[in-house]
């Protein structure tokens, strides 16, 4: 078990990492005038496919009203479109447009490049140890929430 000073140092590094990753992501999203929330909507649709706004709200853990505002903004920017639901005439599906897909694909490429920057050259044993440690930390945080 690590001593108190080592634990405090580890926490400080985790917090610094959170800040640095947030700054990097914000910088990347600013290029496309995207907020974290709007980018999250694009990522969700990319990963799960077209969905209703209610499904999108559940997937993003936000209110349907919040999703309406996000989708309105993304639609105005030409990044998503609403289409009639094929089986429920009361609902619409939200899907990516070509421009929305282009942005998400570029962000995916940038994420892959960033992964390479972070982990290339790290010895396999160190990488596996880091991954196990991060899994443990994430699990503890999720368990506490």
From TrEMBL:
It comes from Dactylosporangium sucinum. Gene3D superfamilies: Winged helix-like DNA-binding domain superfamily/Winged helix DNA-binding domain. GO terms for molecular function: DNA binding; DNA-binding transcription factor activity. It comes from the Bacteria. This is HTH marR-type domain-containing protein. Keywords: DNA-binding, Transcription, Transcription regulation. Residues 1-139 form the HTH marR-type domain. PROSITE patterns: HTH_MARR_1 (PS01117), HTH_MARR_2 (PS50995). It holds the Pfam family MarR. GO terms for biological process: response to stress. InterPro entries: HTH_MarR-typ (IPR000835), MarR/SlyA-like (IPR039422), Tscrpt_reg_MarR-type_CS (IPR023187), WH-like_DNA-bd_sf (IPR036388), WH_DNA-bd_sf (IPR036390).
């Amino acid at each position: 078990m690590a001593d108190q000073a080592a634990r405090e140092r580890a926490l400080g590094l985790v917090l610094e990492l959170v800040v640095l990753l947030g700054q990097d992501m914000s910088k990347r999203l600013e290029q496309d005038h995207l907020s974290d929330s709007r980018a999250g909507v694009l990522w969700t649709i990319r990963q799960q496919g077209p969905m209703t706004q209610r499904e999108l709200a559940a997937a993003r853990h936000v209110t349907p009203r919040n999703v309406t505002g996000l989708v309105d903004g993304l639609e105005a920017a030409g990044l998503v479109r609403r289409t009639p639901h094929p089986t429920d005439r009361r609902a619409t599906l939200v899907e990516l447009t070509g421009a929305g897909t282009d942005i998400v694909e570029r962000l995916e490429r940038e994420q892959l490049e960033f992964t390479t920057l972070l982990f290339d050259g790290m010895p396999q044993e160190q990488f596996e140890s880091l991954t196990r440690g991060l899994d443990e930390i994430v699990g503890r945080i999720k368990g506490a929430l």
